[in-house]
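Case study 2.
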Amino acid sequence: MIDFTTYVGPRAGGLLNKLLDDSPGQRLGIKMDTPFTRVLIFLIAGAAAVAAYRIVFGLKASTNMNDYWPWGLWISFDVLGGVAMAAGAFLIAGAVYILNWKKYKCIARASILNAFFGYLLAAISITLDIGRTVVIWHPLVMWQINSIMFLVAVHLVLYLTTLATESSPMVFEKLRMPRTLHIVTRCMVGAVMLGVALSLLHQSSLGANYLITQGKLSPLWYSKHIPYLFLISAIMMGLSMVSFETILTGKVFNHKAPKDVLEGLSRGVVFCAVPYAVMKIGILAAGPGVGALFSSGFLGLLWLLEMAVGVVIPILLLARKASRQNLDTIFVASILVILGVLLNRLNVGIFAISGYANRVGGDYFPSIMEFMLTAGMIAFAILGFKICAKYLNLFPETHH
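Prediction:
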């Protein structure tokens, strides 16, 4: 192993040596210098260039958003979708540290780390999406308690800090700092309880943002119950994301979670998907009516596609206990739920408002820079997760 003290000095070099010494990734066979890693770095570099361009030249020069489309791909996909993907963390952390469901402990660290990257990317997206990036810190000191956007900002900052706290034991273990590790461990239950409360509020408050869009958002999606729909669908997606990443990391990083863990996660998806489907259909029937699906053209097709892919088919796949014990079935169902909820966020954030925006003269399709930034941030999360899997004790049960 390289002795970094020769290059960066004794203090920084000693820290790097501690991080790289006896890395769990060596035992898991994780390789960093691969073609896939190079592609990730290339995408990250492109996203960094776009971010710099956006900061210097503004939103108009780097995006296709306008006064009629103030929120585009970065909010609908990166924020609404990314935060929903991260919902599995507060569920798994609550199950392990509050309810003491020990069987889920083997996936707790990976779930929390995935959520940390999800919320970090959401924070970056919001920072770049607001008109004046340099004043992103204002909500922390200039409180406006009557604004739902203020609540979203505060929840995001507090929960990102909570996720960093929940992920810190891996770092302190690696740095061999037992006293700090002991202090953080003693505070973990309180941090998790705060995280659960913040996440429940944050997931629903993202939906509450759209309560002011009555008359603009298509009635197929607008409802006074949209905060609850956002919360339930986020829980459904969070559980599916944990199952997806657990199976995927099992294949890539030689980490295998017990089947009873994946079965429990899949059962939770069904318990959420069924009432979610009932709510969606009930809101449709009580609101615009089922006939609106056929009179709304493309929007009606999107509603049906969202429900079929993300709700109905996964319920059918996971309804039987035998199916919930089949890894291939769980993997396919998890992908479908993730795609379905992502489509829901895109529908709410972009497609469902297209009718109003087009009537008043607006038009929107994401620019190449918007796509580049989104792709780069996804690559950043994947590479960050891979680095942590290699150098930190991300899967303690497997390592021992």
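The two ends are 23 Å apart (CA to CA).
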